[in-house]
Structure formats: C-alpha cells, structure tokens
Design goal:
This protein has seven helices and 15 strands. The protein is globular and about 65 Å long. By secondary structure, the chain is α+β, with helices and mostly antiparallel strands. The protein folds into two domains: about 120 residues, D-amino Acid Aminotransferase, Chain A, domain 1; about 150 residues, D-amino Acid Aminotransferase, subunit A, domain 2 (D-amino Acid Aminotransferase, Chain A, domain 2, Alpha-Beta Barrel), CATH 3.20.10.
Length: about 290
C-alpha cells in the first residue's frame, strides 16, 4: 500500500509530494499544524481541532485557505485511500511561496509579499487505545527554553524535538518542562498530578498549548465524574511529591508517568485515579 498525501488541492503518492525550497515553512518554520486522531475509523474531537487550527492561523496572520466545509471535504477525499482504523491525520499550513520573485529576493525574514499558502495532509497508524493495556512510562525533567508563545501550534518545534530526543536517549517517553520552578507541559503533552485524591494541572496561558484532549479530559472525564480538580500552577517539588502523574495528548489519550528522573512514582505503578480516568476516557472511543 502506498500512503497518500494531500498537497495544495491534489492527492498524490507520498513520494511524489514536493514542496518548494522557497516555502516559508521550509525556510522559517512559518506555519502551523494540527493533528486529529481517528479511533475505529471515527475522528475524535474534530471540530475542536479545527477550531484550534483556525485560531493558530489567526495568531500568526495567515488567512485560512479553505472554508470549514472545504476542509472537511478535502479530508474525506484523502481518507478514502486510508486503510487504517486507528490513525492520526496530520495537517500543516504554511505561509507558502511568494507569488512574485521578480525582485530576485528569494528569502527574507519579514513577510512582505503576497504568498501562495501551502497545505499538506497525511495520515499514519496509531495504537488502538481501547485494546491497549495501560502501563506507566518514564519521563525526565528539563528547563523550558521555548519561546513565550507556546499556545500557538507552530511547526517551529526545535526545542521540543531536541528535548524529546534527550528523553529518548535516557530511555524515557517524555520530557516534562519547567520554567521558573513552575511546571508548564511536556514536549508533546499536557501534565497532570494527583495528590491526596485532588488532581491539579496548569491553567491555560501563553506558556502551554491548549490541548484539545486536555480540555476534554478536564470537562468530560474529570468534572462530570465528580473528581476534584484545581487548575493552577504547581512547582517541581509538587511534581516529585505527587501520588500520581499522568499526561494527555491526542494519540495517547491519558498516559501514566510512573518514573521521573529515575525516581518511582506510586512505586512504579499506574495510580488508581489515573486508571479510573483512563477507563472512563476510552468509553468515548468505542
């Protein structure tokens, strides 16, 4: 099977999809992305992901290239070729290539010209969370050295990928980031702790990505099932002294962290509350 790619209105075989080296996404990471999970061939929270995509585009001044109806039609056309039942759909929108380069200027920091926006989409298989046995993962902590506009889902992920690679090299799944002794988030996840049966997570701000799965877990899983949650900043000490740690993201749902910087959390076992939340969460995926 050949994977298919949507690129600027056309569906191509993956190896035939090409972008210009003068695309501002390639030169400057001048673009945004979105990732939508599909479980049992059904999109999960697609409207919420679309809303975040439009918000990120607006935050960096790129006009939305399609209407919502056109977006969903393009997605449906691409996924006609998809044979997976559990997968993510990756969407990337960049400011694109200058419409006119007669002045000979092929690269400039300021976006001074009119550009042909570039849109690409592809899909990749993921784990079926309903059939997955929940198990804990290792994580490390690192200083958060990212820029201060982390609420934009930017394709500029240099520090995130660097930090995630450092975690991988230490046998860990995630790097949890700390800024001025405050836990912000993971490289590709939002972070929650549990202490004395109370769940805590950081508030929305410019320092964290407004996770779609994070919001769903807070509103539909935690609050509607009468778990106590406090949304406020928490420190590195609170992280290490917590009874349970879990992270959320689109492809993993809820994932326990049971070892942090080689220190076991909850004796290295998935905590009861995390397990309960996960069992509630996966019912929405059936």
């Amino acid at each position: 099977m050949k994977n298919k790619v949507f690129l600027n209105g056309s569906i191509k075989n993956d190896l035939d999809a090409k972008v210009s080296i003068f695309d501002r996404g390639y030169l400057f990471s001048d673009g945004i992305y979105e990732l939508i999970p599909y479980f049992n061939s059904k999109p999960f929270l697609i409207d919420e992901h679309y809303s975040r995509l439009t918000e990120s585009l607006g935050m960096i001044g790129i006009n939305n290239p399609y209407t919502k109806k056109e977006w969903f039609s393009n997605i449906d056309n691409l996924l006609q070729n998809c044979e997976f039942e559990n997968f993510y759909l990756y969407i990337q929108v960049t400011r694109g290539v200058p419409e006119n380069t007669k002045d000979g200027i092929m690269r400039e920091h300021a976006a001074t010209k009119k550009y042909n926006t570039s849109v690409c989409m592809f899909y990749s298989e993921i784990t079926n969370l309903v059939e997955r046995n929940i198990s804990g993962k290792k994580a490390i902590t690192l200083e958060d050295k990212r820029w201060k506009q982390c609420d934009i889902k930017s394709i500029s992920l240099l520090f995130n990928t660097y930090a995630k690679t450092l975690a991988y090299n230490e046998g860990a799944f995630e790097a949890i980031l700390i800024r001025n002794n405050v836990i912000t988030e993971g490289c590709s996840s939002n972070v929650f702790i549990v202490k004395n049966n109370v769940i805590k997570t950081s508030p929305k701000s410019n320092l964290i990505l407004p996770g779609v799965t994070r919001s769903f877990v807070i509103d539909e899983v935690i609050k509607k099932n009468n778990y106590k949650i406090i949304i406020e900043n928490f420190s590195e000490d609170e992280l290490f002294e917590s009874d349970e740690i879990f992270i959320t993201n689109s492809t993993q749902g809820i994932l326990p962290i049971t070892c942090l910087n080689e220190k076991d959390i909850n004796k290295g076992l998935c905590g009861d509350i995390t397990k309960e939340l996960y069992n509630i969460f996966i019912k929405y995926l059936v």
